[in-house]
Specification:
By secondary structure, the chain is of the alpha/beta class. It has 13 helices and nine strands. It has a single domain, classed as Alpha/Beta hydrolase fold, catalytic domain (Rossmann fold, 3-Layer(aba) Sandwich). Helix 7 packs across helix 8. It starts with 10 loop residues before the first strand and ends with a helix.
C-alpha cells in the first residue's frame, strides 16, 4: 500500500519499521510536531474492499486490537493508530478534546490511505470515529462503533452540570491528580481495575497489564494525565452523540456487550431511533472489552456486516 504525503504545512511522516507481529508493522509518524504511533497489516489477498482503521478507547492503545487486526486483514488492509496522549504516541502538553483526535484521524487517513474506509472505534474511540465521520464524510464508507459513550451534556441537566463542574474542579487539581497518577502506574491497581471491567477475569493477563502500564512511564505522561483528566470534565470535550448520529449517511454498525458494566447496554438500545441506517448487535457474553472477550464473534459480525454492506 503506497504511503503518500500531505502538504508540508499540515504534517510530516517518519517511518520507523518494526518486525511484523499480530499487531502488524508499527511505525512512527509526526503530526503537528508530535510523534504518533500507528500500525498496518496488508491484506492477505488482493482485494478491492475498503481498508479498516481502528481507533482505541480511553487509556488504551492500538495494542487492544491484537485479536482483531490479523483476522480482518484476511480480506481488508487494516490500520490502527494511537491517539495523541495515549499508547506509544507523544504525551502532548495540549488541550485535549474529541475534535482534536478526529482531526488526527483525518490527517492520518489523508496521509496514508486516501480512499474511503471502514472506521471502527471503541468507547472514546467510537466517539472520535463518529465525530470524524460527520466532520469528514468523504473519509468514511462504513462506520463501526463498539459501545458509544454519551457526551457530558447528554448526561447532566443544566443545573447539575454547574454543581458537578464545581465539585470536579476540586478533584482535578494537580494536588489530587499527581498522587492518583502514581497509583495508576502500579500493576496491582491496574489489575484490579481491569478485573472490574472484564466479565472474564482470566483475560486479565500480565501482558495486558503491561500494555496499560508502559505508556505511563513516557516523558510527559504525568502532565498529559492531568490534562486528560481535566478535559473529560469540560462541556466542550465532545459534541452530543444525539446530534451527530442523525448526520451520518453511511451504514453504521453498533456492537455492545450485554454485560458491560462501564456503559450499560440500555444506552445502546436507544441508538437505532437516531438513525435508520444503524444496526445494533448485542454480544451476550461480553462486557466493555468485547473486542477481546468476544473477539471471534466481533470479527465475524464485522466481516458479515461489511459483506452485506
Amino acid at each position: 500500500m503506497p504511503e503518500t504525503h500531505p502538504p508540508k504545512s499540515a504534517t510530516s511522516a517518519q517511518a520507523t519499521p518494526s518486525h511484523p507481529t499480530r499487531l502488524g508493522s508499527q511505525r512512527d509518524w509526526i503530526w503537528r510536531g508530535w510523534r504518533v504511533r500507528y500500525t498496518f497489516v496488508r491484506s492477505a489477498a488482493p482485494t478491492h474492499k475498503p481498508p479498516v482503521l481502528f481507533v482505541h478507547g480511553f487509556g488504551s492503545s492500538l495494542a487492544q486490537w491484537q485479536e482483531n487486526l490479523q483476522p480482518l486483514s484476511q480480506s481488508h488492509a487494516v490500520y490502527a493508530i494511537d491517539l495523541v496522549g495515549f499508547g506509544a504516541s507523544e504525551k502532548a502538553d495540549t488541550s485535549y478534546k474529541v475534535e482534536l483526535w478526529a482531526d488526527q484521524v483525518y490527517d492520518f487517513w489523508r496521509t496514508f490511505i486516501g480512499q474511503p474506509i471502514v472506521l471502527l472505534g471503541h468507547s472514546l474511540g467510537a466517539l472520535v470515529a463518529l465525530t470524524a465521520a460527520v466532520a469528514y464524510p468523504e473519509m468514511v464508507k462504513n462506520l463501526a462503533l463498539l459501545t458509544l459513550p454519551a457526551a457530558r451534556q447528554e448526561l447532566l441537566s443544566g443545573s447539575l452540570q454547574a454543581w458537578m463542574g464545581k465539585i470536579e474542579s476540586l478533584f482535578t487539581t494537580s494536588l489530587i491528580i499527581r498522587p492518583l497518577f502514581g497509583l495508576v502506574r502500579r500493576p496491582g491497581i491496574i489489575r484490579s481495575i481491569l478485573k472490574a471491567v472484564y466479565v472474564n477475569p482470566d483475560r486479565v493477563t500480565d501482558e495486558l497489564i503491561t500494555t496499560f502500564l508502559t505508556p505511563g512511564f513516557d516523558r510527559g505522561a504525568s502532565k498529559a494525565f492531568y490534562r486528560l483528566s481535566k478535559a473529560r470534565t469540560q462541556l466542550d470535550f465532545s459534541l452530543k452523540t444525539e446530534d451527530l448520529l442523525p448526520q451520518v449517511t453511511v451504514p453504521i454498525l453498533v456492537m455492545w456487550g450485554e454485560r458491560d458494566r462501564v456503559i450499560p447496554i440500555d444506552r445502546g438500545r436507544k441508538l437505532p431511533d437516531l438513525n435508520p441506517r444503524l444496526r445494533l448487535v448485542e454480544l451476550p457474553e461480553a462486557g466493555h472489552c468485547l473486542y477481546d472477550e468476544a473477539a471471534d464473534c466481533m470479527n465475524a459480525e464485522v466481516l458479515a456486516w461489511l459483506g452485506e454492506a
